[in-house]
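Dear support,

I submitted the protein below through the web form. The confirmation email said the job was done, but the results page showed an empty box. After a refresh the structure appeared. I'm attaching both so you can tell me whether what I see now is the final result or a partial one.
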Amino acid sequence: MAEFPAISKLLNLFLNISFVFLIFLCFTHPFNSSGSSFLGRSKTGRKRDSGAGCGQLHDYSDREAKCWYVKSHEGCQNGGYIDYLHLFYCNFDPVLGYSALILWLVVLFYLLGNTAANYFCSSLEGLSRILKLSPNVAGITLLSLGNGAPDLFSSIVSFMSDETSEVGLNSILGGAFFVSSVVVGIISVFVCHSRVTVEMSSFIRDIVFFLIALACLLVIIVMGKINLWGAISYFCVYFVYALFVSTSHLCCRKEEIFGDSNAVASGSPILPVSKNFLGYQTELGRAAEEEEPLLGFASDDDKPTLQEEEEALLPERKRRRRCLDLEPSTSSHMFVCRLLFFLELPLYLPRRLTIPIITAEKWSKPFAVISVTIAPVLLAIVWDSHSSELSWLVYLIGGLAGAISGVVAFFTTETSNPPTKWQFPWLAGGFLMSITWTYITAEELISLLVSLGSILGIRYSILGLTVLAWGNSIGDLVSNVSMAVNGGEEGAQVAISGCYAGPIFNTLVGLGLPLAFKAWSEYPAYYLIPKDTSDYETMGFLMGGLLWAIVIVPKRNMKLDRYLGGGLLAIYLCFLSLRIARALVPV
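What the results page shows now:
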């Protein structure tokens, strides 16, 4: 895992420079017509025309005609803060346009994952301590929510429009298929020489519950409609799984306590490992690597004090703050550090100024005061961007709330230490603002994917099944494969459990919540699910991969080998080839 900080640092620098370049490009490139603007979210032309859409775009041959069509048709405005079709056809030439959109797509994927890892998970950990949740409950609820946040919010945003609901469904199914087939297959190939085995009970349990979740989803898709109570029932299946896992976990602990030497160790973690590829490793991840209890819970005799933990982490923090391993006393070290600091600001500063953080490692009173002051204003802006008319009352309430919060924070906090009392409002504020930023990023990501689908003439469901699913699953691929390769048999058990527990959460909660929201908006009527026969293919191949795993692994004495990995990779490649072929050659 030692290479991750360096890779993350380089990725962070590259994306920040790319972000600055894209902003410079947008505001300096000449417009083709006077009065044109690439900014979306206008009060008069923000909403999509779901009836006409932008389907006739490719009926025009030259770019000027397409530019006119994009500017004159409301259906071409895909609901984001940036009008990507206007940028592509009216401002950029094709090569520059494709390069800018793809680069911005990478930046959005990074922001989505990094916000969840760096801010969302941090707030969840603090809330778990304040609420005094047990390790089992915290792992089943908060850890899964933190790891599945990008998929969850992408799905929620997708289902907000009937035109893009197929993106959300296919991204969840595509991500689940990718993780349970490709990631498990790669892990099996990499660890086959080590003759690693996994625990049979947890392996079969996770796959069986995954098949049950997919069977429930298949029933919903076949029916083509769902009401509010049906959506809530589907969502609650996850809590049945969580209760079952927690109960089995406690039973194993009791067997260990009563001295059953043949009892299997608590074995698999309840939920997927924490993703640390995007520059942040939570206490959850550190506890897993150091074989500490989940979320840092320990007995009173073994649990270190906060001061001891801070002293233990201090050398590591100092090491992380060094730049390129240069000697701190050299002038080149100071120059490089300051240069890197300013290069990392574009993507870091907006979130840092609006998300309250009270961890000891990142505590800063100026940032804390500014964040609680600006956060209500940002919420007012987001709220107003989704309303049909400008509301000065929303901005007035947001400004007053921010001013009052800033004054209170200034007089009740210390410069050297984060607050030790009344932490819940801080953590709740950080949680809310993390959700806000994740939602904003997911909304812009879906808008960009829809625009790319219109430009390339590709169905939105294909982009959700591939681009969005792969982008949201990169963290699972890197963290789980690294855990399996470097962590021995226990690491492989953690990784394999994460490859199934994560998709179970995304399938039940990532689809259950959006379906519940849509059914609520249609209550007491049913919410009609868009018909897409390709969903049956996706679920058929996904279930086939799960059945292959549940048959092959027990027959191979629970060993992860090339038979399992090769079969899973072959199933996914066959499915992907079929879908791409159908997309390129319409029937």
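Response: this is the final, complete result; the empty box was a page-load delay. Strands lie at 225-226, 527-528.
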